[in-house]
Write a structure and sequence with these properties.
About 70% of the residues lie in helices and about 0% in strands. The chain is mostly helical and about 425 residues long.
């Protein structure tokens, strides 16, 4: 492997691990990040001339550590602050061993967890958590994150800077939560990852309804969480859920970029190797014990090569609604009930959701589909019009316009057939 490729590979494989070590030691995000970035720049300059080191991660960590110490000296007048920040005053002269991802307590595994939990601290906004997770968890560059969120790079750089400043101002600790705190903090961590995936799988705004790379990065974070938290079933269930949903990505749009509903998808285009992987992860789990596990079971039903077992899906959503009382879950349950053959019962399930989901275009969309099945054409058209006023993605807007036109065409044909 040539030197430039080795630098790029080292960045992808080691950035977040090395940053976790540096942040833990320096207690400063800015110094840790800038020093590690300098180390990679140094690698890009020196490795082509001197060759790629035998342990690239150790070389980078040593270089970054020394640069961090230099920054601290310049910033804080060397010896007054140095004893407070470095446990061993001889650390400058020590070549750090290559981090072992399988080491025990106090290892890189624990330090990466500290960093991930810090990135998802409740004091941070949802946007800040997502950006920090991609920067420090997935190791993406600022420009890459900006492209994923469809914002200019300076905007994303400012967002990251504000998030890091908020972490410092709020005194967010770089420590692994106590055993009592882990469940609540883990829920936040998993939620951030799933929100990233959902935005990639079905974007909430913009010209593109899907952003496969963002969904892929969320799955990569899911693998990381399962590596760092091997005993957490909900982390494994979330990974299975994302893999199973992502496996259908090629069938969700036709050749012209138009949205294809589940019932009309060509199941032969699904990525069955990924489906097998997701199902294998599910088989490692016991009885459904968490929200992500139930959602993964729904995704498994959708992933069958034959038709979806809609009564089973409706049953799973009913259990999930019982646990969460989520209006979005009830909306999904209504879809399953309708597909199982009961559009009237499904329409009843939508009663009372308008107040809970006032800006969600999917509610009037589903209502329009149900009313259409019940031949209540004018009401269906009004529901689609309401959805068009709320929808924020071009692909879904085009789909709704097609459905509205289909209704109008059907009504005209019916009226024409009734004329003498």
């Amino acid at each position: 492997m040539n030197a430039p490729d080795a630098v790029e590979q080292a960045y992808r494989e080691h950035w977040s691990r090395l940053l976790a070590l540096l942040v833990t030691r320096m207690r400063r995000f800015d110094i840790a990040e800038d020093s590690l970035q300098d180390a990679f720049l140094a690698a890009a300059r020196t490795w082509p001339e001197r060759g790629v080191p035998f342990h690239p991660a150790a070389w980078l960590l040593t270089a970054a550590h020394r640069r961090a110490l230099d920054r601290i000296r310049r910033e804080e007048n060397e010896r007054r602050r140095l004893p407070l920040l470095v446990t061993d005053p001889r650390a400058e002269d020590v070549v750090v061993e290559d981090p072992d991802p399988d080491a025990g307590p106090g290892s890189i595994v624990d330090e990466r967890l500290r960093l991930l939990f810090a990135c998802c601290h409740p004091a941070l906004s949802a946007d800040a958590r997502a950006a920090l997770m991609l920067r420090f968890g997935a190791g993406l560059r600022t420009a890459e994150i900006a492209r994923l969120f469809l914002v200019p790079e300076p905007t994303m750089a400012a967002r990251l800077t504000r998030a890091k400043a908020k972490m410092a101002l709020a005194g967010i600790p770089l420590r692994r939560p106590t055993a009592e705190d882990v469940p609540a903090r883990l829920r936040v961590l998993l939620k951030v990852v799933y929100l990233l995936f959902t935005e990639g799988y079905r974007a909430t705004a913009g010209p593109e309804l899907r952003r496969p790379r963002l969904a892929g990065e969320a799955i990569r974070l899911g693998y990381l969480l399962c590596e760092l938290l091997p005993d957490q079933d909900e982390a494994l269930a979330l990974l299975a859920l994302m893999i199973l949903q992502h496996a259908r990505r090629d069938a969700r749009f036709d050749g012209e970029g138009r949205l294809v509903l589940m019932a009309d998808q060509d199941r032969t285009t699904w990525r069955h190797d990924e489906i097998d992987r997701g199902l294998d992860l599910l088989r490692r789990l016991g009885p459904a014990s968490g929200d992500y596990h139930l959602q993964a079971l729904v995704a498994a039903e959708h992933s069958k090569p034959e038709a979806t077992d809609w009564p089973r899906v409706a049953q799973l959503y009913a259990e999930l609604e019982r646990r969460t009382a989520s209006p979005v879950v009830r909306l999904n349950r209504a879809v399953a009930v309708a597909e199982a053959g009961s559009p009237e019962a499904a329409l009843t399930l939508l009663d009372g959701l308008d107040e809970a989901l006032p800006t969600n275009h999917l509610l009037p969309t589903v209502r329009g589909e149900l009313l259409s099945r019940l031949d209540r054409t004018e009401e269906a058209a009004a529901a689609f019009d309401a959805a068009l006023r709320l929808v924020r993605t071009d692909a879904e807007r085009a789909h709704l316009r097609r459905r509205r036109a289909d209704l109008r065409r059907g009504a005209d044909e019916e009226a024409g057939g009734e004329r003498p």
